Amino acid sequence: MSTVIAGGPSLPQERRVVTEIPGPKSRELFARKQAAVPPGIGTTLPVFVTHAGGGVVVDADGNSLIDFGSGIAVTSVGNSAPRVVERVRKQVADFTHTCFMVTPYESYVEVCEKLNRLTPGDHEKRTFLLNSGAEAVENAVKVARHATGRQAVVVFDHGYHGRTLLTMSLTAKNMPYKHRFGPFAPEIYRVPLAYPFRWPTGPENCAEEAAAQAIDQITKQIGAENVAAVVIEPISGEGGFIEPAKGFLPKIAEFCRENGIVFIADEVQTGFSRTGDLFACEDEGIVPDIIVTAKGIAGGLPLAAVTGRAEILDKVHVGGLGGTYGGNPLACEAALGVLETIEADDLTGKARRIGEIMLPRLRSIAEKTPAIGDVRGRGAMIAIELIVPGTKDPHPTAAAEIAKKCHAEGLLVLTAGTYGNVLRFLPPLVMPDHLLEEGLAILEKAISEV
Ligand SMILES: *Cc1c(COP(=O)(O)O)cnc(C)c1O
């Protein structure tokens, strides 16, 4: 007789390591994966999941891992969050798809109304829905080109915007995202990002100098009047959780405003309370012309959104935007459940609290660890950058080894960064304190051993 366990927050909130990680059942499943799925689809940690909820992920061998990844910043409300489950369960029985462009339904409109109200700025807005972050970024660029009649798109060093042709072209890093996948989309220009830790003249000068260089390159090399859009992550995600030096984003936004350039904030990773604000742009009072969201929007159901100024989005002709599945009714119900949960359970406050616990702890570890060059991030989007002690040279093998040790102890962490030398932490915002503390203790031990 086996006990029936359900996922979601009712799962025991404990770390439990009962086999090697990965255990025998996961290893067997992984062998099947390798035979059936191409290696291009990589694996961070080859444990096969059976349940997840709150702050844990449970695998086929019965191990319960502390989750510092949230499926890459997606399950911010926790896996199978009750309000999400309840709404999706009802919806799946009522109807599963009509195509919003064929015969619409209310939940899509309600998600759009809420995003129009909740995103930065009190101007008149419109929203439309898509399936993935990449698809939404593509659509934001389409809209900006259409509205401005211009073609050039400006992106930044360390930027990540997706894996489709246009968004891969917008992405900075060659390996693994672009290597041998060219030719790339045209009319994309990359300019410097204010990366305080690696700014040659130091963090104090970073915002001013980086903005001046970026603006100089735009005006001299492209011509501001040719630029449709600037696309930027308010905190770089895959690039290594780089928080641009304060002052940089407002300067770029102001330059866009003065030159009729559509400022597109890619908040796919930072959105929905992750950084301790509902949207990361709020930190410096940035009001983007278009904001792109996905990941945390629907608790794991595929959904993405483009929200922007009505006068920009309304320019596109009837039928010019859309897609078969965009704003699928299950995903819309999930998003409404996420938004209710964020508000009812103050997940924005919870994200701040996670940052207040993690940052001082990591800073004190960094003080005694010369291989940690930088501790950064906001809310529940925190990272450490590993360096060769005594230099600023990136140390990707240290990051990989620490991650490996954490995994073996039942703590799921992710790496990131242009140089692969960043450990990033994205716990679900519902992570209980005791698991957060336990995870940090495991991390500290792994760091001291490496
Ligand atoms: C993940 C991500 C994307 C791409 O989203 P997908 O849903 O994987 O297509 C785009 N931008 C940022 C900042 C991301 O983190």
TrEMBL record:
Superkingdom per UniProt: Bacteria
Keyword Transferase: yes
Necessary cofactors: pyridoxal 5'-phosphate
A Gene Ontology BP annotation from the UniProt entry: gamma-aminobutyric acid metabolic process
GO molecular function, one term: pyridoxal phosphate binding
E.C. number: 2.6.1.19, 2.6.1.22
Pathway: Amino-acid degradation; 4-aminobutanoate degradation
Keyword vocabulary terms for this entry: Aminotransferase, Pyridoxal phosphate, Transferase
InterPro entries referenced in this protein's UniProt entry, alphabetically: 4NH2But_aminotransferase_bac, Aminotrans_3, Aminotrans_3_PPA_site, Class-III_PLP-dep_AT, PyrdxlP-dep_Trfase, PyrdxlP-dep_Trfase_major, PyrdxlP-dep_Trfase_small
Gene3D superfamilies listed in its UniProt record: Aspartate Aminotransferase, domain 1 (3.90.1150.10), Type I PLP-dependent aspartate aminotransferase-like (Major domain) (3.40.640.10)
Keyword Transferase: yes
Catalytic activity entry: (S)-3-amino-2-methylpropanoate + 2-oxoglutarate = 2-methyl-3-oxopropanoate + L-glutamate; 4-aminobutanoate + 2-oxoglutarate = succinate semialdehyde + L-glutamate
Family, as annotated: Belongs to the class-III pyridoxal-phosphate-dependent aminotransferase family.
PANTHER family given in the database record: AMINOTRANSFERASE CLASS III (PTHR11986)
Protein name as it appears in the record: (S)-3-amino-2-methylpropionate transaminase
